[in-house]
Amino acid sequence: MILPDGSKFTLDVPARSTNDRTFILLRALCEQILGKTVTWNDRGIIVISDQAFSITDANADVINNYLLYDRPTKEQIKELFDTYNQDTHPRVMINQEIYDRVVYNYANDADVKQWGDQIIAEADTLLLRAMPTYDIPDGYRLLSTCRDVYQRTQRLAMAYILTKDAKYAEGLYDIFEAAGNFPDWNPQHFLDIAEMTCAFAIGYDWLYDYWSDEQKKFLAEKIYEYGLVPANDAYYGALGVLRVVDARQ
Are the beta carbons of 220 and 204 closer than 8 angstroms? Predict the structure, then answer.
């Protein structure tokens, strides 16, 4: 590589040409040509600066939060919620218009009925499955369990919507009761919380008119305790888990 002063610099890794574009090391470009300092850490943060810079746990969180997240205040979130969603169900992924259209098309469209019957058959199989368990096989992720609950929720909830057969709702609640009695939804790996909270939110919302007040209370409390509380801490920087999760994925 020829530097601005005419001297040569040998790259640690050769330049590479792909699709008529030449790629060189970022650090070599910044330090040797632009005169910058490049600093990085094992969590994936790279800082390009005019002077030497040391990344610490404290300033890494500040950098991460500044670059990645635009956080509305809780007042702004509540205002948006009250404006568009208050006292309205369903509202998670579908609204009442979509709900009614799905039911109508299932009853009147052969292709949709075939699709719906397949979901119902899958739901029947899921009713025979064992309840989810708190299993972290690698010592870090509960993700397979959380995704299993999420997938069961979609199928059982849709089977109930299409058939209004209470067995699908009750079977889904049994799953929620099992997962809701876990000690937590594994905040050390935040994607686990996201998947499980999404499952509970869909189930709570799509079957809102079916659940008893006691069932709604249980679901809402678990969404809050295991989902929203750790999410709030991560969202507003109290945990820093989002940065760790991104680096480990």
Answer: yes
CA–CA distance, 221 with 87 (Å, rounded to integer)? 18
Rg (CA), the chain: 25
Alpha helices of the chain — where are they, by DSSP H?
A: 26-28, 57-68, 74-84, 96-108, 110-126, 143-163, 166-180, 190-206, 213-222, 229-235, 241-248
Judge contact between 202 and 92, C-beta under 8 A: yes
Give the C-alpha separation, 107 to 75, whole Å. Answer: 43
Residues paired with 37 in a beta bridge: 49
Bond before 183 cis per omega within 30 degrees: no
CA–CA separation, 47 vs 244, rounded Å? 17
Per-residue pLDDT of the chain (249 residues; tens, 9 = 90+): 677 788 887 878 888 888 888 888 888 888 888 889 988 887 778 888 888 888 888 787 777 766 766 677 778 888 888 887 777 899 999 999 999 999 999 999 999 999 999 999 999 999 999 999 999 999 999 999 999 999 999 999 999 999 999 999 999 999 999 999 999 999 988 899 999 999 999 999 999 999 999 999 999 999 999 999 988 887 765 554 443 333 333
The residue type of 145 is: T
Neighbours of 40 (CB within 10 A): 13
